[in-house]
Amino acid sequence: MADALAGAAALPGAAAPAAHASLRGVTRVYPGAAPVHALGPIDLDLARGEFFSVVGPSGCGKSTLIDVQAGLAAPSAGEVMFEGKPVAGKVPDGIGVVFQEDASFPWLTVTDNIAFGLRRAGVDPAEVRRRVEYAIGFMGLRDFARAYPVQLSGGMRQRVCIARTLVLQPRLILLDEPFGALDQQTRLLMGDELLRLWRETRATVLLITHALDEAAMLSDRVGAMSARPGRFVDLLKTGWPRERDSSLVAEAGFGAITARLWSHLRAESLKAMGGAPP
Amino acid sequence: MSRGRAVLASRVGLIVGSIALLEILCRTGVINPLTLLAPSQMAVAMVDLLASGKVTPDIERTFSTVAIAFALSVVVGTAAGAVLHAMPRLRRALDPLLASYYAVPFFVFYPVLVAFFGLNEMPLVAIGFAAAMVAMAISTLNGLDRVPPVLIKVARMHRLGRLRTLFLVVVPAAAASLMTGMKLALAYAFISIIAGEFILSGRGLGYQIAYAYNSFDNKTMYGLMLFVLLVATAMNSLLHMWEQRLLRRRARA
Amino acid sequence: MSATLVRPARRRSLALDQLLIVLALLVCWQGAYAYAGSSAITSPFATVAYAISMLEQGWFWSNVGATALAFVSSLAIASLLGVLAGLGLGLWRFAGDVTEPVLAALYTIPKVTLYPLILLLFGLGLSAKVAFGVIHGVIPVTLFTLAAVKGLPPVLLRSARAMRLSPRQTLLHVLAPAVLPEIFTGLRVGFSLTLLGVLIGEMFASQKGMGFLILNGINLHNVKLTTAVVLIVVVTAILANAGLLAADKRLRRQR
């Protein structure tokens, strides 16, 4: 039953040496009378099964990065690849996105929300039921299966959205500040769940966050981005074991990682706020 | 929930109390019975009138006119709202017209409409349609404006086509506003058609009220007035309840 | 980002678009005239010419004056009553919750059916017209004001208390500016509906006013007169509303 969410393992060519997803020289400029250069140029290779986080000051183009990798927005220049094929104009099969805003459908129950994508894809009803039930249990939503989103807390609703993406068995999960609206304790616990989910599905994860501790605790690698136009100013490996959870915050190395991230971000955040580093 | 019940009880009390007060004032002669019938007498007059079947053709006429105008305005208004939403430049230019449409007494176009359609119910249909359609179009615009962009992104993530995005995401997300539009469209169609009949036409409930007034037939007049008020309130309450159900689900914490 | 900064080029294109819409309406009108003939409607050109000639007539202005007097009185009463009732019901939350659906239901009834009752109560003349304008305009003003007060973020009042403002200061510098834009919208809607009410009132039980002129024209088959007066009324209503709409948008932008 535990394989109900796992997509990656079943994929042929899992041992291929090429990056699972990659961005090459990607920029994004919003055209107009005064064009806004939002992102890049960015180069990034995500290894299969890797947990990669991006931190950066607000307005640095982090969300644009997700949109471009997902195929929700076209890059102004550069090349976006997923599983060896270029991403062009539409979200490729195998990519799932969880957004920062509450994206649950208020007119559907929790169960129907989670089953939404599977039903659209014409998956056999018995299989839909199996996967949805598993995801509901996995996300701790069992008591709310027939509730509407309006009856749930913000954290619960975000779980519904994660579950809705998860049942599609994506091999690359893109998360755009999914816990941005939640309180600190809930965030840490949701982080634990995310790690559990990542181990179980063996998917590749790209997480955008503004929380340094979240990035430091969850990731294999963290990329720190500059103020707009966003570029990577640092890529660091955390070296955590695959089996890990929020108790990492007590580790000696944890402080060093957040400190290094902050040393980059402090200057960049000041720039983003319009000030200069002292 | 006890506060909700208290509100409801007070509301019922307010309405019943007002009617009772009116009844007492009329019965004790504080209000001249030639001016206003007591509510109970109005109700009796209404029931007698409806039972006699005298006004049945007028009721059928008015309701069928309203129904046609309403159906047309919902279809055309929704389409017009969608088109305006897709064409922001046109929308901006039309904005002052849309905002002041309810200041235009549409029934003054009655003579022109008679010249166009002849002396049948079509001129009144057109008057009801004109008033209702704009309300529907504006509500559609509001609804489309409020569809959260992230839901469209979710649709794209699920690789839904245009049609499926429309029916599975956009329409449900805008349902409450569309419902508001229908509620307003029905009310405006009813109001302007009754007004048109009252002032200009020779048939329908509005005309019968005016006729009863001119021939000093207070019983018929107040019976019909009560009937119109009850029908309008019943229609409105029904749609209001449905709208509230949609809104409650829509509300976000 | 700079949505509030309307660039001159954009403003020019908006003016052009609106000109095109007016032209389109004129073409429709001319088409209607060509189809229905002069027994139903006069041509745009003839109507404007006649409307302008009316502007030099004393009888026209005395009718305008009658409507203006009734309208201004109705609007003043409807605004005052509506704002006061709305404020009261908004601050006394319980009463507001009790009455709001009742008011909303009253808003949707065909008020023209109440006309005989108004006539019986007020008799023919100015007071009936004013009463009719008021019953059209007062409910939207009340509902908008009520919504404005109800929608006031409680944190604003708490901030006022934290800054130790006096009740007067709170009312003047916090409450009023916070609810003003919404109330203004209510007054804008009330403006239009009051005008509508007064015109309907004049169509029935009045020997003066724009509404009377329209109905009189209809009854006497004086198409020239009806079309010209309708044109003047509609254009005035739309222009006044456009002006109020612009002021409304400015008020909201200030926030």
Secondary structure layout:
The complex is a heterotrimer of chains A (278), B (253) and C (255).
Chain A lengths: L20 E10 L5 E11 L4 E5 L6 H9 L6 E6 L2 E2 L8 E4 L11 H11 L4 H14 L15 H13 L5 E5 L7 H18 L2 E6 L2 H7 L2 E5 L6 E6 L14 H21 L6
Parallel strand pairs in A: 3-8, 3-9, 6-7, 7-8
Antiparallel strand pairs in A: 1-2, 1-4, 4-5, 9-10
Helix pairs in contact in A: 2-3, 2-4, 6-7
Chain B lengths: L1 H26 L11 H14 L3 H31 L1 H13 L9 H8 L4 H24 L3 H9 L4 H38 L4 H11 L3 H33 L3
Helix pairs in contact in B: 2-10, 3-6, 3-8, 3-9, 5-6, 6-8, 8-9, 8-10, 9-10
Chain C lengths: L7 H29 L7 H11 L3 H34 L1 H15 L7 H8 L3 H25 L3 H9 L4 H38 L5 H10 L3 H31 L2
Helix pairs in contact in C: 2-10, 3-4, 3-6, 3-8, 3-9, 4-6, 5-6, 6-8, 8-9, 8-10, 9-10
Indicate the overall shape of chain B: globular
Q: Briefly note the structural class of the backbone of chain B.
A: mainly alpha
State the CATH topology of chain C: MetI-like fold
CATH class of the largest domain in chain B reads: Mainly Alpha
Summarize model confidence as the mean pLDDT of chain C: 84
* Individual helix count of chain C: 10
Unreliable stretches of chain C (pLDDT < 50, length at least 5) are 1-5
Distance between the termini of chain B: 19 Å
Low confidence ranges of chain B: none
Question: Which keywords apply here?
Answer:
heterotrimer, A: 278 residues, four-stranded antiparallel sheet, 33% helix, globular, C: mainly alpha, 10 helices, disordered N terminus
Describe this structure in words.
The complex is a heterotrimer of chains A (278), B (253) and C (255). With 278 residues, chain A is of the alpha/beta class. Helix content of chain A is 33%, strand content 22%. Chain A has a 6-stranded mixed beta sheet, sandwiched between helices. Chain B has 2 domains: 1-36; 37-250, MetI-like fold. In chain B, helix 5 packs across helix 6, helix 6 runs antiparallel to helix 8 and helix 8 (162-199) packs antiparallel against helix 10. The radius of gyration of chain B is 22 Å and the shape is globular. The mean pLDDT of chain B is 86. Chain C contains 10 helices and no strands. Chain C has a single domain (61-253), classed as MetI-like fold (Orthogonal Bundle), CATH 1.10.3720.10. Chain C has helices spanning 8-36, 44-54, 58-91, 93-107, 115-122, 126-150, 154-162, 167-204, 210-219, 223-253. Chain C has 255 residues and is mostly helical. Helices cover 82% and strands 0% of the residues of chain C. In chain C, helix 4 crosses helix 6. At the B-C interface, helix 1, helix 4, helix 5, helix 8 and helix 9 of B face helix 1, helix 4, helix 5, helix 8 and helix 9 of C.
